Amino acid sequence: MENTLIRLEDADILNGEATVIYGMDLEVKAGDFVYITGKVGTGKTSIIKTLIGENRLQKGEGEVCGFRLRGIREKDIPYLRRRIGVVFQDFQLLMDRSVKDNLEFVLDATGWKDARDKAQRIEEVLSAVGMSRKAHKMPHQLSGGEQQRIAIARALLNSPGLILADEPTGNLDAETAAGIMELLSSLNRNEGTAVVMVTHNLNLCKEYPGRVLVCENESCREEL
Predict the structure, then answer these.
(1) What pLDDT digit, counting tens, does each position of 6-51 carry?
(2) What CA–CA distance (Å, rounded) separates 127 from 192?
(3) Whole-model pTM?
(4) What element of type H or E holds 80?
(5) Angstrom distances, CA of residue 125 to CA of 53, 117, 139, 168
C-alpha cells in the first residue's frame, strides 16, 4: 500500500449536488499511467476535481498522496495539492506576467523562500519540458503547444509523484499533441511519475499504452 498514490473505494463522484458516478473503485501506484475516457458529461473532469479536493467526497472512501478525501479540512487542501501536479486543457497561465513569473508565483504560493533555489528550480523544470529559452516570454507570445509545456513545467515545480492531466491535448493539433504525449510518457518512464489523464481521444490510449478506465452509465470502470 505504501506506493499507492490514489485509492478510491465505492466512491460516489459529484458534480455540484448531483452524483455523476456511483461506486467508483480506483488504485493508482507510483509509475502507473492511467487514462480516464468517456463521452462528454460522463463525469471525467468531476473525478479530477474530487482527487484535488475541489469536489467533496461524501460517500465511499478515498485517499490521495496520504490525504483522506472524506471530510478533508479546508486548510489541508493546499497541502494535498502541493503533492500533485495538475495540468488543464486551457493552460490557466497568468497572461499578465512572463513564463518565469508564472512559475515563481507558484513557488511563492507553496512556500519557497530562497531566490537562488527558486531560480534553479525554474531552470530545471523549463529544461525538463524543452522550454529553457522561453523564460522571458509572455504567454501570448507562445504557441498553444508551448503554453501547455509551460503548464506541465508548472505542474512539476514541487516534484510531484503524481500528475493529473485534464484533456491536456484537447486544444492542440495532432502533431503538437503528440509532443505533449511524448513529454508525459517520458516523465512517466524516466522519473516514475504516475500520470492520470482524462481524454476523449482513444487513439492516444492505443499509441501510448496505459490502463484505461471508461466512464459511462453513471459508472467508471477499468477496461479489461
Answers:
(1) 999 999 999 988 999 999 999 999 999 999 999 998 999 999 999 9
(2) 18
(3) 0.90
(4) helix 77-82
(5) 25, 12, 17, 18
Lowest mean pLDDT among 24-28, 87-91, 129-133, 183-187: 87-91
Q: Which CATH architecture has domain 4-83+160-222?
A: 3-Layer(aba) Sandwich (3.40)
* Beta partners for residue 213, in sequence order: 36, 222
Closest CA to 137 of 129, 146, 128: 146
Residues 179, 160: Cα–Cα separation, whole Å: 21
Cell numbers 472512501 label which residue? 61
Residue range(s) in the chain whose domain bears CATH number 3.40.50.300: 4-83+160-222
Contact partners, residue 19, CB within 8 Å, separation at least 6: 12, 13, 218
Strand blocks (E) in 83-193: 84-87, 162-166
Residue 77 buriedness (CB in 10 A; 0-12 / 13-18 / 19+): middle
- Helix, strand, coil abundance in the chain, percent, nearest 5: 40, 30, 35
Kindly report, residue by residue over 144-187, the tens digit of the pLDDT: 999 999 999 999 999 899 999 999 888 888 888 898 999 899 99
Contact 146, 177 (CB under 8 A): no
